[in-house]
UniProtKB/TrEMBL annotation:
Organism of derivation: Leptothrix ochracea L12
Localisation: Cytoplasm
Gene3D superfamilies reported for this sequence: 3.30.1360.40, Ribosome-recycling factor (1.10.132.20)
GO molecular function: ribosomal large subunit binding
Xref: NCBIfam families: frr (TIGR00496)
PANTHER family: MITOCHONDRIAL RIBOSOME RECYCLING FACTOR PSEUDO 1 (PTHR20982:SF3), RIBOSOME RECYCLING FACTOR (PTHR20982)
Alphabetized Pfam families for the sequence: RRF (PF01765)
Protein name (Swiss-Prot/TrEMBL): Ribosome-recycling factor
Function: Responsible for the release of ribosomes from messenger RNA at the termination of protein biosynthesis. May increase the efficiency of translation by recycling ribosomes from one round of translation to another.
Lineage of the organism: Bacteria, Pseudomonadati, Pseudomonadota, Betaproteobacteria, Burkholderiales
GO biological process: cytoplasmic translational termination
Keyword annotations of the record: Cytoplasm, Protein biosynthesis
Primary location group: cytoplasm
GO CC annotation terms, alphabetical: cytosol
Key word Protein biosynthesis present: yes
């Protein structure tokens, strides 16, 4: 493995860490509705548990309401029950075969709790990025030990990976601040 491959590999893994963190942020509920909120809710579909998105059409009605349209009319009750029993604190209401899920307003205390969750998830993402940096530096040191690169090349590789790590962590910090501002906005 060359230095260029090490850097490219580290860059790809750090980008995946950012994408995973963005996915994690989407699951954290603000006062606004987002169809992805229901992604982790599983519904009993003829004996097997499936995500709601695989048995119904999930769309936004407005900024604070999600609409769930089951593909089979018989699935309306199980979907409504699954949403109500999930740990999301949502209270769906059925209107015929259409289920409306209004997003309740967040209390100040709940907003503070959510910002802590965001910071914790951000810290986990930063740890993942630092682990990628450590692995890349270990690869460079191994190449030096095997005398495949010079000490100058190893030092340059470590510096480049550090700059990449710093950029990635700065981007994660911006994502954390943006999400916290979104949560604290009334």
């Amino acid at each position: 493995m060359s230095i260029a491959e090490i850097k490219k590999n580290a860059e790809a893994k750090m980008a995946k860490s950012i994408e995973a963190f963005k996915g994690e942020l989407q699951k954290i509920r603000t006062g606004r509705a987002h169809p992805g909120i229901l992604d982790q809710v599983q519904v009993d579909y003829y004996g097997s548990l499936l995500p709601i998105s695989q048995v119904a059409n999930v769309t936004l009605v407005d900024a604070r309401t999600i609409s769930v349209q089951p593909w089979e009319k018989t699935m309306a009750k199980p979907i409504e029950k699954a949403i109500r029993e999930s740990d999301l604190g949502l209270n769906p209401s059925a209107m015929g075969d259409l289920i409306r899920v209004p997003m309740p307003a967040l209390t100040e205390e709940r907003r503070r709790d959510l910002t802590k969750v965001v910071r914790h998830a951000g810290e986990d993402a930063k740890v993942a990025v630092r682990n990628v940096r450590r692995d890349a530096n270990d690869h460079a040191k191994k190449l030096l030990k095997d005398k495949l690169i010079t000490e100058d090349e190893e030092r340059r590789s470590i510096d480049e990976v550090q700059k990449l790590t710093d950029r990635t962590i700065t981007e994660l910090d911006k994502l954390i601040q943006t999400k916290e501002a979104e949560i604290m906005a009334v």
